[in-house]
What does this fold into?
Amino acid sequence: MQKLIIFMIIFALTMVLGQACVPQSPAQTPPVAAVTAAPAAKAAWETEWEATLATAKKEGQVNIYSGYGPEWRDAFAEVMARRYSIVLDSFSAKTDEVIERVMTEQRYKTYNADLLPVISLNTFLGSVKPADILQPLDRALILPEVTDPKAWWRGRLTWFDPDRKTVLVIREFVSPPMVVNTDMVKPGQLETWEDLLNPNWKGKIVLSDPTTTGGGRSLMIMLAYGMRDWDYIRALVKQEPILSRDNRQMVEWVAKAKYPVAIGASKETVTQFQMAGSPIKYVSPPGVGYLSIGSGTITQPKNAPHPNAAKVFINFFLSKEGQTLSSKLTGYQSARADVPTDFLDPATVRQPGVKYVSELDEGYPEKLPELTKGVQDIFRAYASK
It folds into this structure.
């Protein structure tokens, strides 16, 4: 009996082990359906940009009213034509003339201007804002590299009017107050503001006329605002400066050694003469510096005739590529943080750790009318003598 039980146990184990060793047929798996990757959804800005480009090509043209010269116009016209099939038409003149022309168009509803990269803070507050001729610009900014706050050196896009966002600042550069002829002014002769008051320079200083819009008035306002004071401006007037409203003439006088120094000259004009090899250079006195915007803004009048072509231009112009091109042509440092400066005069480039006064300082716009009147009163009295 005992042997029988042992035999049955061995037999059962053998059966179990044998069953385990039998190859199992593979499990039947259902056929796998072919998977087709769905195209990635386009970002909203891409869809908007493509639609804008398509409509812009149909419009075929963008009209720019500015103070930029022919080199700037030709360079941007070439890009717009080659890349976007858009013709760039440009009207270039002094700020006052540009604004007067736009005001006339708005008044008589003969709309022609698409964009105005020309408005200074003084002009905006004095005539453009009260006339209410501008439309919001922020809705025209499409490309991520334009709308990204980190692309701009202040960590944000800077507007003259944050409430309406009609005037965008596109450049902020150190404004060197003096341009000197290096054959007439030796090293050490004109290095500080006080050096300008030396009797040796009496009657030899050319000054951009502060009674009208321009670099001279902006600089005198900044001297009164914080770089110096009203007493300094009155002392400068006693040096009997030669007032000029012709920026090119001012720089040419210094380049050709008619006068040794000019104050408030156009940066773009100085750059042109420097590139031609003229013996002129900037002088920036130590101490508080002046960050200038000048007319370095862009805005759009109401009822622009080519709104989509204008959008295309704005987005290229504000891109790193567009701002680099503009900076090279004008000599102004961009308000973007990623635009190179190695081709700029070091005296015009923002420096870390330096104290600057700026038209973008909090509270400055409120003080501007009083500062402007004070400067104009002093120089109108001088010019009338």
User: Anything to note?
Assistant: The CA atoms of residues 317 and 323 lie 6 Å apart. Residues 2-21 form the longest helix (20 residues).
